[in-house]
């Protein structure tokens, strides 16, 4: 049973990451802000969902979402959703790795957005 749940989690995890990143990249390279925002929203929503699901499963003593999956989705763009899920659900708040890494991922992603926006504005002013 555990192996089936883990296989389903991995399949869904990879599928969500691929869809989100395709939207992010398509939006960035086509200069379509709405597609880019959809990818970011999907990724952060999925990170929040994973935190919420893991909290529920922890209470039920069922299959748990691997911590590496939670950290990886936060690192790959879902930092704000994962941090929000951690704080609202009060999940993983005693784990030092989550307390340190999730805010760092958020800061890095916000700085990346600012930098990419600046690049885009500079490119559009030159054209």
UniProtKB/TrEMBL annotation:
Q: Does the entry feature the keyword Signal, yes or no?
A: no
Specify the superkingdom: Bacteria
The UniProt record lists the keyword Secreted:
no
Q: Which residues form a coiled coil?
A: none
Q: What name goes with this protein?
A: DUF1294 domain-containing protein
Short name of one Pfam family for this protein? DUF1294
Record-annotated membrane-spanning stretches: 12-28, 34-51, 63-83, 95-121
Keywords of this protein's UniProt record, alphabetized? Answer: Membrane, Transmembrane, Transmembrane helix
InterPro entries named in the record: DUF1294 (IPR010718)
